[in-house]
Automatic annotation (TrEMBL):
Record Pfam families: SBP_bac_8 (PF13416)
Superkingdom of origin: Bacteria
InterPro entries linked to this entry: Bact_solute-bd_prot1, SBP
Organism this protein belongs to: Candidatus Curtissbacteria bacterium RIFCSPLOWO2_01_FULL_38_11b
Name of this protein: ABC transporter substrate-binding protein
Lineage, top ranks: Bacteria, Candidatus Curtissiibacteriota
PANTHER family recorded: ARABINOSE-BINDING PROTEIN-RELATED, DIACETYLCHITOBIOSE BINDING PROTEIN DASA
Amino acid sequence: MSLLKLPIVVILSLIISGCSLIGGQKNQAVTIKYWGLWDSAIVMNQIRQDYKKIKPNVDIIYEKKSPQQYRESLQAQINSTTGPDIFQFHNTWTQMLESELAPIPQSIISQSQFKDEYYPTIFNDLRNSNKEFVGAPLGIDGLGLYYNEDIFQAAGISQPPSSWQELANTVVKLTVRDTAGNIRTAGIALGSASNVDHFSDILALMILQNGGDLKNPVDARSADALEYYANFARGDIRVWDETMSPSTVAFTGGSLAMYLAPSWRAAEIKTANPLLKFKIAPVPQLEGGSVSWASYWAIGVSKKTKYQKEALEFLKYLQEDDTLIKLYSESAKTPGRIIGMPYPKKSLAQKLASDPLVGAYVSEAPFMRSFPMASRTFDNGLNDQIIKAYEDAVNEVLKGTPASNALETTAKNIRETLAKYPKKPQ
């Protein structure tokens, strides 16, 4: 019987029931489980409600997880099919999560969009071994040079140093010692591993700027960078040493003039000491160079989700300019936070370019590079193990071992670590 001969009542009942003749599964109720690390449930609820207006059949359930053991828990639960549909991951984890991350189709975000709209480090970082994009960033971060305005003013210094040579001269003027020669106000927190928060990011930046090889640091440029780093904490001209408080604590307390750290530390410092006057400048460069550091979090979709289409559509929504802007503004209103995560898109840079806290990171973003030496990922994997290899090298150099000798052991340990997480072509 043709459709034209069906009674009108039957035709109407077919339409109302949403049968397969008209694609009735299109508006099926779907629940997407989203694992995050940094955004509060209040912030994400705003995004969730906005998305519900566009996709009324899709419900986003957001869970804020602890960063400790997150990576192992994420992989275990995805592989047992009880994990999230969409989740946050660090930009250095693409190799470790090769089996869990679904490729992003061109219809969601095209390769040309990744290249044209995002910063180069994002284009390079978030691809799997088949060169498929497997994540999209919610922000960009790295290292900035925090400086205490009162200490600078007392020393008669009006601007933060923009080069390492200028910094070397400046820290001597900023360092204050007591009559016994002990450091009371440190010029900058550099040279050691035990009490320099983010030492691995800083050392990685120095090696990259000097043209060294982080993956196999047996070259002279890597050794020179390590020696230079250690010099800040040894000898009579040291401006920092292992007797000092952890660098974040020292800067917050006003006994440290300069401090290299990611943008999110600003809120922590402001909360702990609201009266501290500080600004953040771009990291120092070698003369004629432009290399900065990247460490940021992205979102990806599970290969195991049965709602991959819906999860990818939500990922796309999270990358829209209006959504990123709202995420930033709502995050900045959260108690304990005064800023959001700097935007990952070039087109949004001007919105934050003049901000005294995050403007430095935006200006550095075009020159950012990354490697698995990012602090505080808590991954018990590539980052933590490679950081330990470099930490041992720093400690050996402070004991008097030549950097070139110390880095031979580091290179061996890095090779062994990378072998645990081989790339897996699909």
